[in-house]
Amino acid sequence: MLVTCLVLLMATGGRAQSSNSNVLGTFVASTPCTAPSKPLPGIAANAECELMKWKLVLLGNNAANPSGFTLHCTYGLPKQGTTGFMPGSKEVMMEGVCAVTKGTATNPNATVYRLTDNKTGKSISLFKLGDNALHLLDEGMHLMIGTAAWSYTLNRIDNQ
């Protein structure tokens, strides 16, 4: 069952938001970026990337059925002693459609958001842990494994 849903939108430098979409939720995370396969399309395999900062804003008219997305991610090498990056950090922006499906590699009943970028056709999948947390899945639909310091869980930062 494929249902169009999830919209992740960030503030886009003055771009107008669709008049029929409301902000449903904002999710953020700081995640590792050391996997052999980088966790986000658009990051070169040989990129200097240890840290990623994500911002997702869900949009739509119905919290149970969001309708599209925009994703903003900054990545690079962390600047020691700060929450920022060393010079040379880069950004990836994606926006497009989302489909809600059922099932991960180990849980056939899991709710999964599949986000597909309009420009490139590339996609990522997120496991819905609950209303306040999403976890990144790898291409095999397994939970991404983090480090002792970071996970691949995006947490809601706004009120429901």
Q: Tally of extended strands?
A: 9
Shape: globular
The largest beta-sheet arranges its strands as 2-3-4-5-6-7-8-9
Mean pLDDT: 82
Largest pleated sheet: 8 strands, antiparallel, barrel
Radius of gyration: 15 Å
Query: What is the H/E string?
Result: EEEEEEEEE
How are the elements arranged and paired?
Elements: E1 3-4, E2 22-32, E3 51-60, E4 69-76, E5 90-102, E6 111-117, E7 123-130, E8 133-137, E9 153-156
Antiparallel strand pairs: 1-5, 2-3, 2-9, 3-4, 4-5, 5-6, 6-7, 7-8, 8-9
Would you mind describing this structure in some detail?
By secondary structure, the chain is mostly beta strands. It has one domain (3-10, 23-156). The chain has no helices and 9 strands. It has an 8-stranded antiparallel beta barrel.
Characteristics of this structure?
160 residues, mainly beta, eight-stranded antiparallel beta barrel, disordered N terminus
Please outline what is shown here.
The chain contains no helices and nine strands. With 160 residues, it is an all-beta fold. The chain has one domain.
